[in-house]
Amino acid sequence: MMALFGMIGAALGVLGSLVVGVYALQVLDALFTLGPRAWRRAFGLPLAQAAQLVRRAECPPPHGDTFLYQSAPFIAVASVALAALVIPIGPGLIGFDPGVGLFYFIVVLSPFVIAMMNAGWSQNTATGVIGTFRAAAHLISYEVPLGFAAIGAPMAAQSLAAGHIVAAQSHLWFGVWQPLGVVIYLVAALFPAFRHPFDGASAAPELAGGVLAAYTGTRLWLFRWALDGMFLLLMAMGVVLFLGGWQGPLLPPPLWFAIKTLLLCVLVIAVSRRLPTLRHDQMLSLCWKVLVPASLANIALVGVLALFVFGGAV
Amino acid sequence: MNGVIEWIVFGLLAGIAVVMAASMLLTMSMYRAGLALMASFVALAGIFILLDADLPAMMQIMMNVGGMLIMMLFMVMLMMDPGGEMMWDMKRSMHMGGLGAFSMTMPRRRSPAPHHHPAPATTSALADGIALDHPAIAPMPQAMMVMSDMPHGGTAMSPMPHDDMAMDDDKMMRDMAMSTAQLPWALVIGVATALALGVLVSITPWPLSQMTPSGDASAIVGTLLLGRYMVGFEGAAFLIVAGIGGAVILGRREGPAPIPRDSPTPTHAVGPTFTCPMHPEVLQDHPGKCPTCGMTLVPLAPTGDEQGHAAMPGMTHTGWEE
Q1: 0.90 cut: is pTM over it?
Q2: CB contact under 8 A, B87 and A103
């Protein structure tokens, strides 16, 4: 019985921190959009948008695939919640700690992309289907570079469990001696989150919203929430892999983790806002011609460094 | 207590796997078939987790979700109607500039007009990579036939005479999306295969069943997979590849026939080939000036613009010739 209560408590804790984190990320986004002088509005904007969307009536597409249309936002939110389980925000503060934590995290990103594809397909419109194709192109683009870039950390830590990876960085962050891995990870992390330079699947100008075109009301809000949550989780996993996780002086570990994650978010948003949206063919060539070879080189480099310079057990 | 929960979870996962595999066979939409296959594999990954084999479970999900997704993408791009009959109006409007690779056509349903035009190649509209079932061009012959025949009153004046019929059976088509015409055969084959597999599994002496549970189950499963059952998995992989190949071949057979582009039109071979743009009664077999107005004569048949006309076969039969 106690075990059951423990599980429920862990799940609630994970969900609560996810909700708070996504709110913080949405405030950040609003700050970037509105400018720092409008910080009061930036704090209210996510809540106002949520209230406005939840009150709006649903308007399902008339000749679409109803089941896929209605289930897609929930698949997206569920995969975000599942991915949040394996991120440690402090020593022992983790929802679920399998031995294959990082691998699990990368695996549960795929259902999220599937949800985006279903959303586009179920609308029964041309723009939606093109959005579906682009989302599928995202999946086959990001999976290899993201996995190869992230694998540098478990190679050095000799474990796939997130807690072990953080503990192995007590002396030196992996990001310090794997800068190439950090860059590849951060670029590839923008794909599954469908963030700005790679937001072709839900492009507002050319596809009228793409995969999200037919959504309004609560389901649209859920989708946007899941997109923000996915970006936040990818940045949090970046902190776990390369920036020492919860470790830091003086402040309590969860606070350090939150500060690092939000700073990484600020960095990535600030850089990505200055880039133009990539076309899907440019996106594919970036992935397969640049990121994949670079990540392979990174693996070789990390292997040599981990073996000879850092003596295997960092 | 734990054992009971494990059995319940196992039953649920196995049930999901079997039901999803069956619905993959029975659905008409290739997209849904791909999704059902994914769901079935994910349920199998749950059974791996029950066996304490986390790593094979994760690999199962990653490989199959990624792999199935790519397969689905290719199916969507190669097939005439990957959404089943359900999604046919989406396919019809799927022609956007700059996306030639994604541009597709699908067999247009027959017009209800009693005199169906014999010649116009409305279904074989794929030429030079340009799909031509744009509603403004392709149904023109049919529309004109219907206008001359007036089979069902006022609706015939609409530019797309089969729209009302489409609306009628749209609901029927959507209901059909979870069943095929080959349903009885699929059921018989599926049940027979399931029985054969069940017998095979129960008479096979599984070395795993005699082992005591250990913490390192993933290593045992991996060794057995790579050692004893490799041939079986290779065979399954070969069957899958053969299935994909067969699907592609079947899809090509249903596809539009290529338009013979070399065959010269009869106007090329005989008769006058040059005319005046202003005076169509002036016909010559060599270029020159018009005797009436002095303008340069232009070719009667589209010799210089052949490609454009080959891409629009519907325009060569406008219905005015008869």
Answers
A1: no
A2: no
